[in-house]
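A quick aside before the break. I want you to see a complete sequence-to-structure record at least once, exactly as it would be stored in a machine-readable document. Don't worry about memorizing anything.
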Amino acid sequence: MEKTAYVLEFEKPLRELTRKLDELRQQSLESNIDLGDQTHAIEKEIEAAKRDIYSNLTPWQRVQIARHPQRPYALDYVGMIFEGFQELHGDRQYNDDRALIGGTAFFGGEAVMVVAQQKGRETKEKISRNFGMPQPEGYRKALRLARLAEKFRIPLITFIDTPGAYPGIGSEERHVSEAIAVNLREFAMLRVPSISIVIGEGGSGGALGIGVTNRVLIFENSYYSVISPEGCAAILWKDAKAASKAAEALKLNAATLETLGVVDEVVAEPFGGAHHNPAQAGETLRYALQKHLNDLRALDTDALISDRYDRFRSLGVFSEPAAR
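That is the input. The structure line, written in tokens, reads:
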């Protein structure tokens, strides 16, 4: 995947240092003067800046990384860690939603079913993929494929990456909330192992529509939330520009989700985000998937369903102070 010059706001100091380093190197070549001391000094500054920036990311900065236009998308990971992916189309009721793709593949030599929310990179593809926001037919396609996985007794692996289900009039007319609700019920009762991975954005019911699985993993610079920071800010502060404050309040941090039991494992990313080294991110994910899949394959059908039930029933535990 080619990297572009796209730089996030908080990365601009780093970009400026990199520009200075490039200028020095070019000057050294053109004038045939040894500028090793100066370039070495800037290289040290760059490393220090990287440590300072990427080791102290705020929740809002992590959201920005989760939305980075060069961040690996679902099909990128499918190409890296699966073999023989064969896409299956349509919900057999209305249409083929390209914001949600799926099909059979091989993982570690074993057959699996893959269901994924897919964004686009170029403008034409973004529109075609509806900016990664599935419509009712997308969730019904996901359910069709999940039932196929159950029929052929193969594990289900889902990739979550959406700002939310599409809220347009047509989507509402075709009952998007009902489609998601059915998926919540049916995915909970699947008789095969299931794992979901939040690889970017995990927005509300749009994410949960393919996320009721035995294990939920998340990349460290992804977020999984009941609402987007902008949506939360518009409701609580009446201003979407307060998104950074909302991200802080929503605790959009993968480590916090693991502590609360919302996710089962935080998958480490290359320093600065998965887009800096997609191949490394893919290998790390491959290892995590294999580990959890091995654990789940050891469970019988009843134990799989009970495991999934217990996982979601245990969410939202709270304590109250003793009465005085």
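Two observations worth writing down. Residues 214 and 308 are 5 Å apart (CA to CA). The mean pLDDT is 91. We'll return to this after the break.
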